[in-house]
Write a structure and sequence with these properties.
This protein is an alpha+beta fold. Helix content is about 25%, strand content about 35%. A three-stranded antiparallel β-sheet has the order 2-1-6. Strand 3 and strand 4 form a beta hairpin. The longest helix is centred in the C-terminal third of the chain and has 12 residues. The protein is globular and about 30 Å long.
Length: about 80
């Protein structure tokens, strides 16, 4: 993903929760824009989770899925 794509996701009005997918096969849900930030150059992103903060190199982010798709995926993960 690009810096511009990340900025677009965060700046969307109204904000739409999304899930970031990484090259490691992990995913991170961003439910509020306040829980997501980027360094000045945009290379590192930080996502505030319930009890910790995850930092990710943008080069390792392979994609994102929107709220409806991530809810379906979460349901599928539970089945």
């Amino acid at each position: 993903m690009t810096i511009q794509e990340m900025q677009r996701l965060r700046a969307a009005h109204p904000f739409e929760p999304f899930r970031l997918l990484t090259a490691e096969g992990k995913h991170y849900d961003v439910r509020h824009p306040e829980n997501f930030t980027m360094t000045g150059n945009g290379r590192i992103i930080a996502i505030a989770m319930v009890d910790h903060v995850v930092t990710i190199d943008l080069l390792l982010v392979t994609g994102e899925i929107g709220r409806a798709q991530s809810e379906l995926q979460s349901h599928h993960d539970l089945v």
